[in-house]
Every structure is written in structure tokens, then in C-alpha cells.
Amino acid sequence: MARQSSSYAILCASFNQDNSGFAISTKDGFKIFDSNTGRLCYERAVGAFIIVEMLYSSSLLAIVGAGEQPSLSPRRLCLFNTTTGAPLREMTFLTSILAVRLNRKRLVVVLQEKTYIYDSNSLAILDTVDTVPNLKGLCAFSPSLDGCFLALPASTIKGSVLVYNVMELQSHCEIDAHRSPLAAITLSSNGTYIATASEQGTIIRVHLVSEATQSYSFRRGTYPSTIFSLSFAPSLQLPDILAAMSSSGSVHIFSLGFATNQRCQRSSSFLGSILPDSVNDALDPADHHVLHTAVSAGVRSYAVVRKVDKIPDSSSSEFSSCRAVVSLITYNGYFQEYTFSINNKNESSWSLDREFNLLTFISDSAKSS
């Protein structure tokens, strides 16, 4: 997530590359949690941070201070070892760091008008990408080494996105996704799909990265709303589910797998045959499932699809249902986890499995002392 307002108890929140862990920061320090168990794995109370990024479940963190202390400058990136409790390397930039992304081969540092690409191991600079003014540090990163892409805004007046191949160090394509500026971007973990939302927040569009072609267009709602986050389900092949968190407090699930079946059915109908796919898809609510008021309206929240299980149909080679685990972090300090289930009749249900306060959470070692 990009840098956030200090009016919230949580300054930043991020899941690691496989969603097995997540980090939060407050004015006092940062905490690392295990997503599967909710266990507090590490905490450090040394001041406020605006960026805390994990490298999978390793001991390496990329952290950036909020500037409330001279030693925690927002222009300084610290690569921190949680095992030793000491910095491994510090890098200082001319302007504030707005976002950091990394995998086992690449480190990406996003500033307002420049983005730097480094080798993660040697920290040698590999490329510098000049960008349009990116005040929010908006970006997306696919950590897979086979499809490692970086997405950045390509315009300040419309919703264009630059897709950059981080391994080959070259621009891949530019996609004109929306008429108004971008508010949210995400890439699937394998770099196959990119999803975008504009500042209007009414339409979510999904493009195939390899060909820069639109694959899906989903209508979130009629009235404008801020999209706080977008998240594809993890997948080794094609993701099945896309989640969006809106300022209305609702979680929106778009089922890509069922969308393909619905599109085939619509194309054989009279109306489907005369409407273009982009209009047809946006008008069809069948692929859209909503959990209303998951959090209070207006509270900034971050939702990810952590995992998806497909339940096979015993009478055929297809799947009878799909079950997804959706995790939410609210910037007023709560973690929630839901199970979303959908069957082959497009019937869906939600259940709240876990909820706890991130700000008052006490580690196991503190409990036993």
C-alpha cells in the first residue's frame, strides 16, 4: 500500500509476496504477523514508519521512516534484518520514498517522478524509469521471476498505465484503461493479468499483460467510490478471483472463471450478439458478489485474496464450488478474515472466521513473561 494519512492508527499495511505474512506500522513502530495463525512474529518499537515491506517469510525487511525523527527520514531506505535486529544496508534518495517492492532478484524504489530498479543481492542500480508525477506512489509488482512486471501510472489526466518488464529492464506496453486518473492497480502474482480502477471507482478493468488487451470489465457500482485496494487470488496459472475494497466499506468479489462461462452464454443471446464485450461485461452483475459494510464506510482498508480451494464435482471433471479466504486490514487497527464460497450455479455466501485488534495484540513471549 502507498503512504497513508497519519490520521489513522495504522500508518501502513502490506502483505508479503505469497500472502503468508503481513506487516503494519503505527506511530510507535512496526509488527510482523503470520497470516495463517495470526501469531505476532516480530515487533520493534523505534518510531513511526510509512513503509514496511517483507521478502516472503525471510528475515529481510525494507523499511522507510515517517520523518518524525532525524534517524527515520522518509528519504532513507533501510534493509533491515529481523534476526540480528540491525540494518544490513541504507540507501538515501533526493526526495521522499513513496513505495518499495521487492522479490529475490529485484528491488524497486518509487519516488514522485522517478523509479529505481536494483539488483536485490548486490544492490547495483540496473535502471531508472522517469515517470509522470506519482504523488501517491501508486504501483503494482508481480514477484514471479518468470513474469516479473512493474506497473506505474503513465498519465495524470487519464487512466493509462505503464507496464515495465523488471527482469528484462525494458518497457513492455502502455495500456489506456480508463478516462480518469488511476486510483488502484494490481498485477496477478504470475504477471498474467493487470487490474485497474480509476478515481471514479465504478468500473474495474482487467487486461492480459502479454497482449495488452482487455479481458474483463466489471461494474462495481453506479455511484463513484474510492477503490482502496485490488487483489487477485494467488494462482500458478490463471487467477480465478479478483477482490476490490471500496470506501463504502464493502468488499467486492469478481469471479473471473465464471465470467468466462457467462460471456460464452451471453454471446449466443440476441442482446449479447449486438453489444460489444466491454459494454456487455460491465452491464452483467452475475460475476459480481458483495459483502456489504464489512467495515465502517470511509475507513481505509486493505483486502487480499490469500488462497483459493476448488472443490471437485464427483460426477464430472469440473469443479462444483470454489472457496476463497479473504483477509482485511483496516487502518483503524483491525484484522478480519472471511471465507467466500461460490458454486457452479453462481450462488455465493460469506462467513467471518477471525477478527482481532492489531493494536492491542500481545506476542506469545510477552504473555508468558
From TrEMBL:
Primary location class? membrane
> Which Pfam family name is an example for this entry?
PROPPIN
Do the record's keywords include Repeat? Answer: yes
Offer a single GO CC term for the protein: phagophore assembly site membrane
Membrane topology for this entry? Peripheral membrane protein
The entry's keywords: Repeat, WD repeat
List where in the cell it is found: Preautophagosomal structure membrane
Q: Give the stretches traversing the membrane.
A: none
Q: Which family does it belong to?
A: Belongs to the WD repeat PROPPIN family.
Know the name of this protein?
Autophagy-related protein 18b isoform X2
Gene name for this UniProt entry: LOC110410504
